[in-house]
Amino acid sequence: MGRRSDLVLTREDIARTALAIIDEEGVGALTVRHLAARLGVRSPSLYNHVRSKDEILDAVVELIDEEIDTGCLDDPDWRRGITAFARSYRQAFRAHPEVLSLVAREAVETAQALHAYDAALAALLRAGWSPERALQLLASIDYLVLGSALVPFTAGFIRPPGEYAERYPSLAAALAGSPDLTAVDDDGFERGLAALLREDPVG
pTM score, two decimals? Predict the structure, then answer.
């Protein structure tokens, strides 16, 4: 069966399909040929919209960045606004860990990401933070968000608690007493975020 010639592609179509491949099969499975096949077109058709695989990945990152809520940063309560922003930021990338592993190694170049950082800093500056301290606080939030989204703390403990008991009794007891490990990760994120935002603005 031949490829469709009547299909009108958009950059967003390409990005969403590429993201689906990454989520389902991993970043290594994303090739121009595989993407074209999934879209039902010939590979050269993609080059009318993107110039390379790197540009496809950029479009994927832009798609995820668009899911981050920055409107909440207009909240007059700066802690509430930053909290909502951090939760949205974490959720957007937590859903796509394969993409996050790439983003963590790349420069911040997408307009959406730059806007998000700018809006978060603007909220902190309005609250009375100095530029330097605002940047430090945002960096701390970034570490917390990306770290918790990329590698959840409890994901490292793959054995039943009882198998740790002989050599690591405290770890075994803690794991056994925490049947919902997802809740442990979520609560850890919330506690860390609350601790970061407990400080009053410093000029």
Answer: 0.84
Buried-exposed string 9-31: b where 16+ CB fall within 10 A, e elsewhere: beeeebbebbbebbeeeeeeebe
Alpha-carbon separation of residue 133 from 4, 98, 108, 125, 198 (angstroms): 55, 31, 20, 9, 14
Instruction: Please say whether the beta carbons of 31 and 53 come within 8 A.
Output: yes
Identify whether residues 29 and 99 lie together within a single domain.
no
Asked if residue 160 and residue 101 are part of one domain, the reply reads yes
Rounded-to-integer distance, Cα 169 and Cα 160, Å: 13
Look at residue 2 and tell me if it is in a domain.
no
- DSSP notation for 79-138: HHHHHHHHHHHHHHHHT-HHHHHHHTTS----HHHHHHHHHHHHHHHHHT--HHHHHHHH
Identity of the residue numbered 5: S
Statement to judge: residues 74 and 24 lie in one domain: no
Residues 152 and 52 in one domain: no
Cα separation of 96 and 61, whole Å? 10
Is residue 33 in a domain?
yes
Enclosing domain of residue 191: 69-197
Kindly report, residue by residue over 30-80, the tens digit of the pLDDT. 999 999 999 998 888 888 888 888 888 888 988 999 999 999 999 999 999
2: tokens are 């031949």
